[in-house]
Amino acid sequence: MSSEFRIGFLVHDVSRLRQILFDQEMRPKGVTRAQWWLLAQLSRNGQGGMAQAELARLLGQGKVATGSMLDRLEAAGLVERRPDPLDRRINRIFVTAKGQGILGDMVEVGRRLNGLVLAGLAPEQLAVADQVLTAIKRNLRRALRDEADAGEAADG
């Protein structure tokens, strides 16, 4: 198999295996992969909360599926919905203090797992890996934007 195809498989496998390892660590805390991913996305957004539609887009899933997950997280006391101050039709989603505790656990688990996953790699190797993966991510985002732009042009 040529390296141009192998890289896709490697990236996928590394991501999948790391997710499985992370899941194993988070399972005793009662948080599923989808839930910890949602909490992680909310935590990256800062203090303003996120609209459910925006969150669904970031997660790559529908508003209904996101709403169901938010219902479960809200029932567990990890997130709360608050009316948007500018648009009463929209609820903004915020991480609660209990959810912040889970996020803290996630950071701790992530750091510990990074130590295991990155063991034996020199800082220079990690820097090159970071540069390569960042470039691949940028290319993918550009391709997705171009595809969306082409679709809008065809619809227009």
From TrEMBL:
Q: Which InterPro entries match?
A: HTH_MarR-typ, MarR/SlyA-like, WH-like_DNA-bd_sf, WH_DNA-bd_sf
Pfam families found in the cross-reference section: MarR_2
The UniProt keyword set, sorted, is:
DNA-binding, Transcription, Transcription regulation
**Taking every annotated instance into account, which residue ranges of this chain make up the domain HTH marR-type?**
1-138
Kinase in keyword set: no
Residues folding into a coiled coil are none
Domain of life (superkingdom):
Bacteria
**Record keywords: Transcription regulation included?**
yes
Extract the SMART domains matched here: HTH_MARR
What's the protein name? MarR family transcriptional regulator
Q: Which organism is it from?
A: Paeniroseomonas aquatica
